[in-house]
Specification:
Elements (H helix, E strand, L loop, with lengths): L1 E8 L6 H9 L17 E6 L3 E7 L9 H13 L5 E7 L6 H11 L5 E6 L6 H13 L26 E4 L8 H9 L19 H16 L8 E8 L4 E7 L3
Parallel strand pairs: 1-3, 1-4, 4-5, 5-6
Antiparallel strand pairs: 2-3, 7-8
Bound molecules: guanosine-5'-triphosphate (GTP) and magnesium ion.
Length: 250
């Protein structure tokens, strides 16, 4: 039996939660087209005949840190402890740039294997995917002087030990997700079951319902509701849930 924890890091909105859901084979984390959807660490659990892969879905982060991200950063830092590896998620649809480099500098410094998932490759041209894979592969590499910045130098100063693997995937269509899961399971040591096999997340039922309500609110609203929504579930009956949706401003 192989088992262990992998942290999922990346900029906001790159598809981390969608990918965690795809890797777990069911809905664990809520998803929206707005950044900062994930607010706290959620475990998504993928079980196989001989493995238990526990993914820590995390809030996205970027620099400069705004107040909300600053608070969520503590969650991220805590989740980086005691993991067997990091799944670093990038979006193939956006320019890979400073924001990703900042995250790369953080995750490569942890000293555990980093697996890159280049997400959202659905309906992209092969040439564009190839370019983005190249840019992804160079992330975190130390820049070695003028004009040589494109080539990582082996053994250069800094924590960059190179990435363990790079997988182009589409969390939406499921393309490449099976191979990525195998790759991550390969990082796990022999270990016990951390969760009962029928459990797919560490959230309580009432927390899961609260998250689903928040997801619907995020999808159904635009500018009229501030993005800072939180939900308190008061009461769960047979077929009725009572909850409060709290917003930041009137
Ligand atoms: N086309 C495409 N869209 C995707 C894919 N994966 C995720 N998305 C979309 O990207 C948006 C963000 O997805 P999330 O999973 O919420 O992203 P996240 O990285 O968890 O975002 P935060 O929690 O805010 O950091 C949603 O609109 C998803 O439907 C993909 O593989 N292809
Ligand atoms: Mg998320």
């Amino acid at each position: 039996m192989r088992s262990g924890f992998i942290a999922v890091a990346g900029r906001p909105n790159v598809g981390k939660s969608t990918l965690v859901n795809a890797l777990c084979g069911g809905k664990v984390a809520i998803v929206s087209d707005k950044p900062q959807t994930t607010r706290r660490r959620i475990f998504g659990i993928a079980n196989g005949d001989d493995f238990q892969l526990v993914l820590a879905d995390l809030p996205g982060f970027q620099r400069p840190l705004d107040a909300l991200t600053e608070r969520m950063q503590k969650t991220v830092d805590a989740a980086f402890e005691d993991v067997e590896g990091v799944l670093f998620v990038l979006s193939a649809r956006e320019r890979i740039g400073a924001g990703d480099r900042y995250i790369a500098s953080r995750v490569y410094a942890l000293g555990v294997p980093v697996v890159i998932a280049l997400n959202k490759v659905d309906r992209l041209k092969a040439s564009h995917i190839a370019q983005q894979m190249n840019a992804a592969a160079r992330l975190g590499a130390p820049v070695v002087g003028e004009g040589a910045g494109t080539q990582p130098k082996a053994g250069a100063a800094g924590a960059w030990g190179g990435f363990h693997a790079l997988h182009p995937v589409s969390a939406k269509t499921g393309d490449g997700v099976g191979q990525l899961r195998d790759e991550l399971v390969g990082l796990l040591p022999e270990g016990p079951l951390y969760f009962p096999v029928e459990q797919r997340t560490d959230l309580s039922v009432s927390a899961q319902i609260g998250e689903l309500i928040r997801e619907k609110a995020l999808w159904l609203t635009r500018d009229e509701v501030p993005h800072s929504i939180s939900v308190e579930v008061d009461d769960i009956e047979e077929s009725v849930v009572r909850a409060h949706v709290l917003v930041e401003t009137e």
